[in-house]
Predict the structure.
Amino acid sequence: MGTHVIIDARTRRVRASLDAPDDGTTIFAVDLIGDTWDDFSYFTEKARASEQACEFTKRNRYVRAATAALFSHLDGVVSDIFRILRGDSAFTRYQPKRPDFCSLKSKVLAIHQFLTDQRDLSLPVLSLELKLLRDILNHPTVTKSISQDGSVGSVLLEGPDVYGIAIDDLKLAGDEINQWLNAVSGNVPYERFCDTKRLAEDFARALGEEPISTHTF
């Protein structure tokens, strides 16, 4: 009987140690925040290929998955950075009234304004319009309103609008989020992606064992 050891790459803590059918000990170092970015990239390209092949059921499935993964990654990084900055007394006046229960948008605005004012950082523009469709994915019966450019009116978004996302627009939203997160992470500082392979090897050596083989999964 073997053992599977699962390590949270963010906290460097063992989350589980499970019996496994194989012999020996297998160590898994997992980084859910980093994985969701890989998921976004993977599903976006799958959506593009499916659209080109006129496989629209698959295309829509991949669009749903890519949209969800993109904002899972954004939420994970932003929430971690928000928690780190709360330790800075200068960040206090930028926090929402209820920082423990505030929205992703509130956290983004607080971080953006703080880094712009206090650290003289010029950040790229970050649009969260696509998040409205992510919200509909999470709660399929809700509707969302978005203001039209140059108009006092608004457009009502509903479930079917999720499938109206163009692949290029999905990719563009990802590029904008990626640029913003890179700029913010580099100035906090924050490790956006963890080296899970190295962590698993280091953990094995800490147990007095030399890793036989390592790979990402």
Q: What stands out?
A: The first strand starts at residue 2 and ends at 8. The chain has a mean pLDDT of 90.
